[in-house]
Specification:
Helix content is 34%, strand content 15%. Strands 1, 4, 5, 6, 7, 8, 9, 10, 11 and 14 form a ten-stranded mixed sheet that branches. The protein has a three-stranded antiparallel sheet with strand order 15-16-17. A three-stranded antiparallel sheet has the order 18-20-19. Helix 4 packs parallel to helix 5 and helix 9 packs parallel to helix 10. The longest helix has 22 residues.
Length: 634
């Protein structure tokens, strides 16, 4: 027999073989490894990740980014619009949202969106082409048809949205019908993303999102009938009352709809961060082992049904643009996840929207009040951001290549960035050796390849090249608790009342809680040595008067009404003393203004009469109902 000529392996062919198999051959190994080496980590929709953003960039930094974007014309752009409104709350949701049924609020929001677009467009000059746009939320379909037309008209006034681009919107199947789907097609949307989470009725009741299968099927059928290019469905595993059997039933129903793309997200239960999650019964959540079984079973079923495992939690049909881009080595990541157009500058519009422009990340204000105030002042509503360094660009390219295409060509990285890879990433290569022993990566001369098992745990592989995680691990624990902008968090007294800039009391008063980001008008005392002392001169009360010329708005020019016998006080300058005694407490003044009789109180009529030694014993904080101050709605 003659010598056989070795077959030439085409670029990224290993990816095609991995994703086209009927089922991944390594799920038994994945079960064994996931509990040992998998853990919480970034999703790397950006690098550096959003938790590294700080308030030092500001509007001047955004203006500089837009100027660089203008110089890059006529390069196309990507747009993201955040529509925060929802008619009802879903307990699992961690998005920045506004729960309301008042469409007057959305009409005002649409007006301010147009103002922000005009400000940004004026900075980048000529009318630029947009090849990718996405409306997220919240629920973008909360807007009525006229409001949606106004937003789209504003977009077309400042940007060019060609029909061949990707224009997608997130929709709630419970809030749309065939007429609304026809409107979306008329406005130029060609991709829709539907939130499903789970079709099991008991799970839906537990997360406060009742959504029958028939409603979802009607919307999918309408999208097919109207010619939408792609339909995507979102599922979540790890919700209360979910089991492997129950979630498999949901997957089978989803497969009857045959969506072009599927996202299967893991639920993260963080009730201390997201208040609505406090309504979820923790005892009903599946165990870690059950949650892993749900994921493995879902991967097996979807790949057996012909779906391509893109990575992380994304699946797509073989002829979908995502799968094609991955086979060609063109797949990228942005804030919407995997994308085929992630290399362009992205502008973000709306509250909390994130943009990525000319090597800088920018994020808008998170509240409607701050957002409106900035635009009323003629400013772009930038809250925080991050300006990337040269090393950040290098590491972002490496992480993107490993997460999207599963292979890193070291020679190309060295030529493009002018580095010696082995010397620059000596510690990282040592960590990769350990992951290689677990079968997650293969280190070969000139390249790093992520195995099929590694693709299931690709976040763990990408974290190796995250220098900020390395720096965090090297810092003492006390330093890691500092805020990202370098300001140490302030510990509050248990008796302190904190106010938001709208004047309403914050409900959470954890003594170890960090200073809330939205207390722009509040003055928060650091905790005194006597933890339970209620200081007489409390600047968090609206009627407070203080001689100190600090940031509290009501203390600008009024004398303090505290008694001289109060002793040392954190509001007063060193050595200063109050000018005159206090007559009555703020609460009693409020009662008297309303013509109500004063109620007898066992406590002193004024806290100023207490001395430093007359302090309350440790115990739960006492809350008094103050007229005019109502708790925020649940």
């Amino acid at each position: 027999m003659g010598r056989q000529t070795p077959r030439k392996v085409r670029p990224h062919e290993h990816v095609r073989h991995a994703i086209y198999g009927a089922r991944p051959p390594c799920l038994s190994d994945f079960r064994a490894l996931a509990g040992r080496i998998d853990g919480n980590g970034p999703r790397y929709t950006s690098y550096p990740t959003a938790d590294r953003f700080h308030n030092g960039l500001g509007e001047p930094g955004y203006h500089a980014a837009l100027a660089d974007c203008r110089a890059a014309a006529p390069a196309p752009l990507s747009l993201y619009l955040h529509i925060p409104f929802c008619e009802n709350i879903c307990y699992y949701c961690g998005c920045n949202k506004v729960i309301t049924r008042d469409h007057g609020r959305s009409a005002k929001y649409v007006h301010y969106l147009a103002k922000e677009m005009a400000l940004a467009a004026a900075q980048i000059g000529e009318r630029r082409q947009v090849l990718q746009s996405h409306w997220g939320g919240g629920t973008p379909t909360f807007l009525n048809p006229e409001e949606m037309r106004r937003v789209m008209a504003s977009l077309h006034a400042h940007f060019d949205l060609p029909a061949e681009g990707e224009h997608s919107i997130e929709i709630d199947p419970r809030r749309v019908d065939y007429a609304r789907m026809a409107l979306l097609a008329e406005l130029g949307f060609n991709r829709v993303s539907l939130g499903v989470q789970d079709f099991d009725p008991e799970v839906q009741q537990a997360i406060h999102r009742v959504q029958p299968f028939e409603e979802t099927r009607a919307v999918v059928d309408a999208a097919r009938d109207l010619g939408f290019r792609s339909v995507s469905l979102d599922l979540i595993y790890g919700l209360p009352h979910q089991t492997t059997t129950r979630f498999n039933a949901t997957v089978e129903q989803v497969l009857t709809l045959r969506p072009d793309r599927l996202s299967v997200y893991s639920y993260a239960h963080l009730p201390h961060v997201f208040k609505p999650q406090r309504r979820i019964d923790e005892n009903a959540l599946p165990s870690a082992g059950e949650k892993l079984d749900i994921l493995v079973s879902t991967i097996e079923r979807l790949t057996a049904a012909g779906y391509v495992y893109i990575g992380m939690d994304h699946f797509a049909l073989p002829d979908d643009d995502l799968a094609v881009a991955q086979r060609d080595g063109r797949l990228q990541r942005n804030f919407q996840g995997y994308s085929t157009h992630a290399g362009y500058d992205q502008l973000g519009f709306g509250i909390s929207a994130i943009g990525a422009v000319a090597g800088r990340y920018v994020q808008n204000a998170r509240t409607l009040d701050d957002y409106y105030a900035a635009l009323d002042a003629g400013r772009l509503p930038v809250m925080r951001g991050f300006e990337m360094e040269r090393e950040d660009h290098l590491r972002r390219e490496i992480i993107g290549a490993l997460m999207c295409n599963g292979i890193l060509d070291i020679s190309q990285i060295e030529a493009r960035h002018g580095i010696d890879f082995a010397r620059t990433f000596d510690a990282e290569l040592a960590d990769l050796d350990r992951l290689g022993a677990d079968g997650l990566v293969r280190l070969e001369p000139g390249r790093i390849e992520v195995t099929m098992l590694g693709r299931l745990l690709v976040r763990r592989v990408a974290m190796v090249f995250d220098r900020y995680l390395r720096e965090d691990a090297a810092r003492p624990a006390a330093v890691q608790q500092a805020a990202n902008d370098g300001v140490q968090s302030i510990r509050l007294c248990r008796s302190t009342r904190a106010w938001s800039d709208t004047g309403r009391r914050l409900r959470r008063r954890n003594e170890d809680e960090k200073k809330p980001a939205n207390l722009s008008r509040a003055f928060l005392h650091p905790e005194p040595e006597i933890t339970w002392q209620r200081w007489p001169c409390n600047p968090l009360r609206r009627a407070h008067r203080c001689p100190g010329r600090h940031s509290h708005p009501s203390a600008a020019s009024r004398p303090c009404l505290s008694a001289r016998s109060c002793g040392p006080h954190p509001c007063l300058p060193s050595g200063a003393a109050p000018r005159q005694p206090c007559r009555r407490t703020w609460e009693h003044r409020q009662l008297r203004r309303r013509g109500r009789p004063r109620k007898p109180d066992r406590r002193p009529s004024c806290p100023c009469r207490r001395t430093q030694q007359q302090v309350r014993q440790p115990g739960p904080p006492q809350r008094r109902r103050v007229p005019g101050l109502q708790r925020e709605p649940e």
